[in-house]
């Protein structure tokens, strides 16, 4: 429902808005049924249904469809990538997914507990996250060389796509200010009934029975929250320049009172940085005035 102060929408706008809402509802129901949850990333992207649809197709191809890497390793690589940017939201999300598909809980104690083959990705993960121009063919050759912990070319390609995907998604999470769900363990809704330790796809449960009805009710509640968000955005559009300037000054003043991040969250050290080696390595300008540009590795 629209607020009393809002002017009525013209018929054409009403039709478009109703169509967008039905598209959002269908997408959210699909997500709830297939994944057992609708997370906050989906809630934000749901404001743009076409983008959300493309994003989910990509996620499904990377994490659930056929590929050389078993499912639990795909989620562990996602954890490694998100931890490189200290994105605790994505790390927590994929720790849950890792266990759901039968991953070894001991690996979640930190990167040092993972198999050497996965640990060998650390160097290229670090470079891709912060200074990708430093990657050379030697980095690829080192991972592909024959040995007990070597990667096949197909495995490495999928691993690199996962790393870059989750580096980018971490930026999206930070940029949109996405926070953990209210129920961190299960998100908004139920989890799939049991993990699949064989790494194979989960069977289709369908939408029938009480589970489907619960999913629909849950999505109805989520859609209502999205309506409220849209209304608040419309109210923001009506704010005058003077009001915006006043708010900005207030926010700037309050931001000076925020405690430094290095004193704030100690839990980040244990839950995220345990998946990171060489945490001091970070972004550095590609080239500076008066300096010789570093060599680049051109694949094409």
Describe this protein's structure.
- Among the domains are: 12-65; 68-180 and 269-279, AhpD-like (Up-down Bundle), CATH 1.20.1290.10.
- It is mainly alpha-helical and 300 residues long.
- The longest helix is centred in the C-terminal third of the chain and has 29 residues, at 209-237.
- It has 13 helices and no strands.
Concise overview:
This protein has helices at 11-35, 40-45, 49-63, 71-84, 88-100, 116-119, 122-130, 137-144, 153-176, 209-237, 241-255, 261-264, 267-271. The chain has 300 residues and is mainly alpha-helical.
How are the SSEs placed, and which strands pair?
Layout: H1 11-35, H2 40-45, H3 49-63, H4 71-84, H5 88-100, H6 116-119, H7 122-130, H8 137-144, H9 153-176, H10 209-237, H11 241-255, H12 261-264, H13 267-271
By CATH, the architecture of one domain is named Up-down Bundle
Number of helices: 13
Q: Helix/strand/pairing class, anyone?
A: mainly alpha
Helix and strand element order: HHHHHHHHHHHHH
CATH class of one domain: Mainly Alpha
Morphology call = globular
- Beta-strand portion reads under 5%
Biggest sheet: strands, sense, closure?
none
Pfam families: PA26
InterPro entries: AhpD-like (IPR029032), Sestrin (IPR006730)
Main location: cytoplasm
Family: Belongs to the sestrin family.
């Amino acid at each position: 429902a629209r607020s009393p102060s809002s002017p009525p929408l013209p018929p054409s706008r009403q039709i478009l808005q109703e169509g967008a809402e039905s598209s959002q509802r269908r997408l959210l129901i699909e997500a709830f049924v297939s994944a057992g949850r609708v997370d906050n990333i989906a809630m934000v992207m749901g404001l743009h249904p076409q983008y959300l649809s493309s994003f989910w197709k990509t996620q499904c191809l990377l994490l659930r469809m056929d590929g050389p890497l078993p499912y639990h390793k795909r989620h562990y690589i996602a954890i490694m990538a998100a931890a490189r940017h200290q994105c605790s939201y994505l790390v927590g999300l994929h720790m849950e997914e890792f266990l759901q598909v039968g991953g070894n809980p001991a690996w979640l104690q930190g990167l040092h507990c993972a198999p050497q083959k996965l640990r060998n990705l650390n160097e290229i993960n670090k470079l891709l996250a912060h200074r990708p121009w430093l990657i050379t063919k030697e980095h690829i050759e080192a991972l592909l060389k024959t040995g007990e912990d070597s990667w096949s070319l197909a495995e490495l390609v999928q691993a690199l796509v996962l790393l870059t995907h989750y580096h980018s998604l971490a930026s999206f999470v930070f940029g949109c200010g996405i926070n953990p769900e209210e129920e961190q363990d299960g998100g908004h809704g139920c989890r799939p009934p049991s993990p699949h330790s064989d790494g194979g796809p989960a069977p289709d449960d369908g939408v029938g029975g009480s589970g489907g009805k619960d999913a629909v009710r849950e999505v109805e509640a989520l859609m209502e929250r999205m309506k409220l968000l849209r209304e608040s955005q419309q109210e923001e559009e009506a704010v005058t320049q003077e009001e915006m300037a006043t708010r900005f000054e207030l926010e700037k003043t309050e931001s000076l009172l925020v405690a430094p991040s290095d004193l704030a969250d100690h839990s980040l050290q244990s839950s995220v940085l345990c998946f990171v080696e060489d945490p001091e390595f970070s972004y550095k300008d590609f080239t500076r005035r008066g300096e010789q540009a570093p060599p680049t590795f051109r694949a094409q």
